[in-house]
Protein 1
Amino acid sequence: MNDQQLLRYSRQILLPEVDIAGQERLLNSKVLIIGLGGLGSPVALYLAAAGVGELHLADPDYVDLSNLQRQIIHQDASLNQQKVESASERLKQLNPAIKIITHNSLLQGEAMLEAVKAVDLVCDCSDRFSTRFAINRASQAANKPLVFGAAIRFSGQMSVFDPRLATSPCYACIYDENADDAELSCSESGVLSPLVGVIGSLQAVEALKVLGNFGTPAIGKLLTYDGLRSEMRNLKLLKDPACSCCANHA
């Protein structure tokens, strides 16, 4: 690291769990963020600020006025702009030293798998069950850790799935693949603005822990947050031996 990097990341380097070695691991890491909305906004901003060297941004959508209540990476001047371009501009302003690669179309099939293979870790910030299952399958196939988050109304969830560990469950161990995408719609159900910030920030913390190799990531745990009741719970997750996705994973 040069002098500017040492100064920029000095507050993290002061942490003995991170130190210079951990910060260098972050600088050499690549992360794919799928979804640049309410969850993806704080994830992208914090990973860029923390010095993750290369961010791959994936989202096919455009910025809409209704997004600005919670998608804090975008601004009024970004309206009608592609979300990946709006996010890329903001992140370059925040930390010009990081590299940004954008995917402005829906990642599916082989494209999804190749995008996951190109990075060290994936942050699932999407809002559809079908997309989440596709991300999970690609993560398992590419043997890449996945940080999952979800938020709607006043509640949210977060977990880490790491196929490199034989005991780690995956997304399909927990959730029904026949779930209806419409059940997740914020446009139908609503969401409190800072709730996505809480869950997205937790995702960013877990991503940094995995990449920097410090602390104990939330593998085999599901963190749930109830904003109405100010309650956070930590549920233990077990790998499903009959899981359709990871049961036969080496």
Protein 2
Amino acid sequence: MSGGAAATGRSVTSRALGVLDAFDAGHHRLTLSEVAARSGTPLTTAHRLLAELVAWGALVRRDDGRYEIGRKLWDLGLLAPVQLELRQVAAPFLLDVHTATRDTVHLAVREGARALYVERISGRESVPIVSQVGSRLPLHATAVGKVLLASAPDDVVEQVLRAPTRETRHTVVDPRRIARDLEGVRRDGWARTCEEMSLGAASVAVPVTVERASGPVVVAALGIVVAAHRRDLGRLAPVLQVAARGIGRAVGGAEPFR
């Protein structure tokens, strides 16, 4: 631990992690001063840490002087069970759905109060959307998120209902209506949204469940995104449910992806 780090109670490791944490979905590329400001790190310390992280491969310094996440972090992330195992098991089923519909298909798991997208298949004809592999989107504003929220612990549901964010003018932010939506998911076994996360896009999602000794456990959500003007959203649910059952059986006795 350096003297400066000791004086502030922050280790070198925590400072380096703070620098990495300055990057997020809304801040893909940052200058030195932006990294220092967002991480609360002195400029000279940020400069040194950035140089070390670039040398290791965690970050890349662009020609314009800005920094972005490097390939090495991506490679490490792919080794996480939620990425490696679940993606490998689910990929053929997602491809089947995409081949049948030509629409964007994605798989997500719950990470706190967010839906973490672990796989996505889309084509040239797919509706443009904001979700990408690695995206973390609000549970209340996406169909996969509503599915995951419907099976989440009470404290997570309460956290989301306390302050739901408005992502578009169509996002449902009334806690009572969200609660009714969740009851509908539990009753019907699928969720739907229309332009709540992306204008021009509607989505349908179903749970991926695994049988445990204590009963079925939701380990992920499988969803599809189509144009908002489509009127056959309900007919997409059975297609997804067939694929979700296949994923659930393939996951089998593996530990839940939480």
Protein 3
Amino acid sequence: MRTIKLGSSDLDVPVVSVGCMRINSLEKQDAARFVQTALDAGANFFDHADIYGKGTCEEIFADAIGMSSSVREKLILQSKCGIRPGMFDFSKEHILSSVDGILKRLKTDYIDSLLLHRPDALVEPEEVAAAFDELETSGKVRHFGVSNQHPRQIDLLKKYVKQPIVANQLQLSITNATMITGGFNVNMENDAAVNRDGGVLDYCRLHDITIQPWSPFQFGFFEGVFLDNAKFPELNAKIDEIAAKYSVGNTTIAMAWLLRHPAKMQPVTGTMNLQRLKDCCKASEIDLTREEWYGILLAAGNVLP
């Protein structure tokens, strides 16, 4: 598995992050097999959140892997906090209590990365800074990031937070690529020229923030996957054509499309299927040509100006 630096940190992480949002759908034996399959492929970065399964996903993960100090040394663990029923909460009190809960469920003394999950309209950045300082000083969290935030929101945090923001987890896939397509529709009057994210892609590249695409195979907002979907005949035909060339599955090519971007992204998988997980990890070995990358982009219905 190829690795990249997580943001501006010195932490080497695999280019594929293993999402654990659905691990509570597995029995313990299957969950253990799932985690081991990821580790065998070199994917030892596991993405969690305190709301996944209302915390049960973190518990099941720790139980499945038989968490111990020796096991912990082999893992890179990330979790997220800030979403509560009916609200978002970036208060110092909630961040600190959330991390304590995460650590208890994961049966560990620290997590490698903590992301703020969805922007909180009532955020007091001074409180976030105080929470981050306490978590860093105590050793409970080693790196910090955000999720679904645009540049100005990150800048507001950075005015008070002294720790580097190393990651921003954003929805991105071949069919949800406005942060990419907006870049070549500058000064146009078409819908693709609408700036929906404040130029977050270029911002993250400029500030050494790793983009972690979530739902890399979804279209819309959890409407379904585009792979093998009759709604996307041209896209699937192009992906299948390229997959045949590299003797891999379509999942691998869809993931490789994200990895080909020079922003050095770290896509987050969502599957609990062992073969699809392997196919995701295999994308680390594929380097699409410029023609192949643009061919897939256009087959998804995007138009070059």
Protein 4
Amino acid sequence: MTQTPQIAPAKSDRAAALREFWHYFSVNRGAVIGLVVFALLVLIAIFAPLLAPYSPDIQYRDAILKPPIWDAGSDPRFWLGTDPVGRDMLSRLIHGARYSLFIGFFVVSGALFVGVILGVLAGYFGGWIDAMIMRVMDIILAFPSLLLALVLVAILGPGLFNAMVAIALVLQPHFARLVRAAVMAEKNREYVTAARLSGAGHLRLMLVTILPNCLGPLIVQATLSFSNAILEAAALGFLGMGAQPPTPEWGTMLASAREFILRAPWVVTFPGLAILITVLAINLIGDGLRDALDPKLKRS
């Protein structure tokens, strides 16, 4: 009986915070559109085997480089045409959504995990630990991200997994620097001092007391890094260092079709549009999250 009055206000506070978040997020119409598009992409990726009319790897030798259904000479079986070996473009695009979203999730999760640990250690302890970690981050940031990822993949070997590991290593300094700055701003505040005086250890102070108050900028950075991961994975796939054929990854689809860009432009146009729409939707969501989570940017 004594806990009910405490639980109810906590629930109402969370509900009020969610309503406030949605209010500021929904003010940005582009962010709402991006969220709808991204939700559709997630559903397409989840139900790809049910939505795709054909297997992405089946080759129809009697329908090589067929144009989309609205062009002359098209085949009504293939709405978006076929690729140079007779595979259905629509089916490959639908299955490609799985790869792109998985790449973004894996890369952001890895970069976030490593970056948060390094950033918290650097910001909390300072001194030589901070100097050592930040100098390594500065060295990584000194190289163009795609070039460094390309070098790492060349060392590790071509392949989708190696490409994701390389991109995660390239992106994690952004999280480390962001967390370091947030932890340095928070660690001397009164609530941290009170927790320290009450006997909280370093691990509890870092992960339980300080880190939850740094989540706002991290969420925004994770969203933007998601789109960067998809772009860089597509670039590595286009260069032949990412996913390898016949994987229906959008960058790999572009690479295998580039020699047909004049003869059959649809084999390049549709994967490029898929990358463009996905990245644009995620960036719009990132803008909305920034408006909703940053008090300085909240609109009246």
